[in-house]
Amino acid sequence: MADETAVADTGAEQPGExxxxxxxxxxxxxxxxxxxxxxxxxxxxxxxxxxxGSRLPRLVGRSFALAxxxxxxxxVALLVCQLVSGLSGALGLxxxxxxxxxxxxxxxxxxxxxxxxxxxxxxxxxAGVRAVLGVAIQxxxxxxxxxxxxxxxxxxxEAATNAEMAAYDHPGFNDRYDKADRGVEVSRDMIGQxxxxxxxxxxxxxxxxxxxxxxxxxxxxxLLTAVPQALASVKGERITxxxxxxxxxxxxxxxxxxxxxxxxxxxxQIRTDTLAPYLLAKYRASGTKVxxxxxxxxxxxxxxxxxxxxxxxxxxxxxxxxVMFLLGTGRIGAASAGTxxxxxxxxAQGLQGIVGYGSDLMRTGRYMDDWESFVEEAAGQRLDxxxxxxxxxxxxxxxxxxxxxxxxxxxxxxxxxxxxRQGEIVAVVGENGSGKTTLMKLLSGLNLPTEGVVAWDGxxxxxxxxxxxxxxxxxxxQEFARWPMSARENIHLGQPRPGGDEEVRRAAAASxxxxxxxxxxxxxxxxxAREWWGGVALSSGQWQRIAVxxxxxxxxxxxxxxxxxxxxxxxxxxxxxxxxxxxAEDRAVVLVTHNLSxxxxxxxxxxMDRGRVVQQxxxxxxxxxxxxxRDLWLLQQDRSxxxxxxxxxxxx
Length: 652
Ligand code: ADP
Prior knowledge:
By secondary structure, this protein is an alpha/beta fold. The protein has a domain at 41-380: ABC transporter type 1, transmembrane domain (ABC transporter transmembrane region fold). The chain contains 21 helices and ten strands. The chain has helices spanning 2-19, 39-45, 49-70, 72-108, 117-161, 173-214, 218-246, 248-262, 264-272, 276-328, 334-377, 436-443, 466-471, 487-492, 501-511, 513-518, 540-553, 570-583, 619-624, 628-637, 645-650; strands at 395-403, 413-421, 425-430, 451-456, 459-460, 473-476, 558-562, 588-592, 604-609, 612-617. Helix 4 runs antiparallel to helix 5 and helix 6 runs antiparallel to helix 11 (334-377). It binds adenosine-5'-diphosphate. Residues 169, 405, 408, 412, 430, 432-438 line the site of adenosine-5'-diphosphate.
């Protein structure tokens, strides 16, 4: 609920508040992130003392299980240290009674002072052991924490790479990823919190054992002091978590703005479009809303904590009254009373630790829940396809295929039939938005069709092992990656072929990337990352040559190229297209291009219009017979000025 309110606020306040310019032309759709919290809100509502009790053991178990996965030896050592520390705590308390008894006796008869020595020695030894173990426990926790965090991150990254591509089009996937990421961030705290909780529990148990032995009637009073504080702490956690949910969208907005304001890709447009003040104002507006919500939560929390402490203080007064009563009525002796005082102090510390670390752990646990659910099912999008391993495809085909993007109102592809065979080059053309890129994603098994079948040698891509399928696929997407790695790695992508650099150079020569590499300071070894020390920046066209070299280097049976030469100069483009026929000898090649003269080399051209295949044929056929291809071709050839322009230029 709180979340929904925050979303509504975001939309209502942002434009006016942020720009400060008062333009009202911003009545468009509000920027609303797709995920509204899911079970998080339910969880916050359910955050009660009862749940605290039932969840804490599970959370402690989980943190030790994660620690176990990264370093078993350290976990065993940690548990042994905890146990011995708890035992020495109890031993120390019992020794206190004897020591106090002896000391009180010695006060009356100084000759008996020596009898206190053994108990005092035990006391000192117990304290010493606890101190040494405390250092060991701290060291072990410090050793485990970063390892746990890295393991958590590794599992999350693994889950993300094992999600269906379509996941990114599902509302909430990115938000779930962000939440899981928060889980990774806090995972390093989990072991410390768990071990502090266990240690507080050990302290409490040791004290409770002593109190039970000496004055059992005080035990319920002790509990009474803890309950109000525990309840206040749980309620405080709930308040904090609800404010976290309420600010979720604004915090995401802040992240998004931060990225956009600083990333190199947009840096030029931020300047030339003089956009910075507008975006900065948006940033400030979201920040203010986050602060306002946090302030409200902090105030509520302070009130609750104050109430809890007052009630706890009252109960503590009752308990101390009980101690005085027991002593005054002679129900316990002076030595026992002294020990009980020590035990009560130590029990109070234990209780405080349990409540404090318990609520810390609950919070961490909540984020870890997000992490766990992401790791387990990649937000419901884990790759779950067949296990058949395809060979080099000889025939890739779409049969009556329809595709609708998640949450889209209508299908992007309708009843598409399409095929490409080994040795063949098929060009796909059509206007923007006609579905060409979507078709490429289906051919290469990145997405699965929502209707019909995409088959590789007669086997549906649903039944094929996706990773094996992608090993047989080379794709040059429109937006190709520019990996911050060496030129060599940017071409072989960590999968060198048996010929090593020889193959890398051959692929580079086929795309014109050899000229790029030749001019690099250290050739193939050069780091292609401007942001890194010593890295080199390439132009878009140079990068595109590298991207095409990548696909050429890959020994894959299906080559899919989506506008592979859009940024290339005529020489480089010519080199790629003349080399394509040789590449196609043992590959099935699909090529999307807007430059229709490039389709001359294709064996077949498929023309798409609004998600349907409307024409198929050779270049000769399609450019001579009436139809969309001929229209587009004629438009591309027509470079005459639009009507009226000539006259205007002449000043008619
Ligand atoms: P083309 O490559 O021919 O320009 P696309 O295949 O990229 O066309 O897109 C076809 C249609 O699918 C467009 O109308 C676009 O709005 C829609 N579309 C593309 N990607 C997505 C997406 N991730 N989610 C929803 N709709 C999408």
